[in-house]
Amino acid sequence: MKQVIFILLMATAVLLTACGAKTETTNTKAELSLTATDIAFDTNRLEVKAGEQVHVTLHNEGVLEHDFSIMKMPHTGDVMAEESEHGMGHDMSSMSMEPEIHVAAPTGESLSVEFTPSTPGEYEFFCTVAGHKEAGMVGTLVVK
User: Fold this and answer.
1) pLDDT tens by residue, 11-62
2) Strand 75-81 vs strand 110-117: parallel, antiparallel, or unpaired?
3) Which residues contact 92 (CB under 8 A, 6 or more apart)?
4) 70-97, pLDDT tens digit by residue?
5) CATH 2.40.10.10 fits 29-143, yes or no
6) Burial level of 25, CB count in 10 A (0-12/13-18/19+)?
């Protein structure tokens, strides 16, 4: 009888240990919102965590075309950006290189881009439309 009780106690301990050792993996997504007006972003600083999927929605409340761009930033996976149904001809001020992270929003539209930064650091974001960056449409994406 003592052996049966001992076996039951051991089995219970193993089950409880297995349940307690459960590790949770949470796939978090940072939902960021950025509003563009003429000629400014509503914030010049965004913060996210390395390895966290980031979803940036650009709301264009200006009368001019605007975009959200980061030239170079280490990331994992693909960068997924929505495109406008209006098929606008987006002018990136004759840039020699296209940004790695980019979404453009016509006047009155909100479009988004998703990406997963892999390396902590500070990365400049800006509007690539001619003259907009120079006018102050610049900010920093801080990856912790």
Assistant:
1) 555 444 444 444 344 568 999 999 999 999 999 999 999 999 999 999 999 9
2) antiparallel
3) 67, 69, 98, 99, 128, 129
4) 999 999 999 999 887 765 556 655 667 8
5) no
6) exposed
DSSP H or E stretch at residue 111: strand 110-117
Whole-angstrom distance, CA of residue 113 vs CA of residue 68: 9
Spell out the alpha helix ranges (H) of the chain.
2-20
Backbone phi, then psi, for 6, in 5-degree steps? -60, -45
Sheet (strand 138-143) strand order: 45-48, 138-143, 121-126, 66-70, 101-105
- Going from N- to C-terminal start, the domains of the chain cover 29-143
Nearest to 74 by CA among 50, 45, 98, 103: 50
For the whole model, what pTM was predicted? Answer: 0.77
* Amino acid letter for position 71: M
Taking CA atoms, 128 is separated from 16, 36, 43, 59, 100, in Å, by 57, 12, 17, 16, 12
- Exposed, middle or buried: residue 86 (CB in 10 Å: 0-12, 13-18, 19+)? exposed
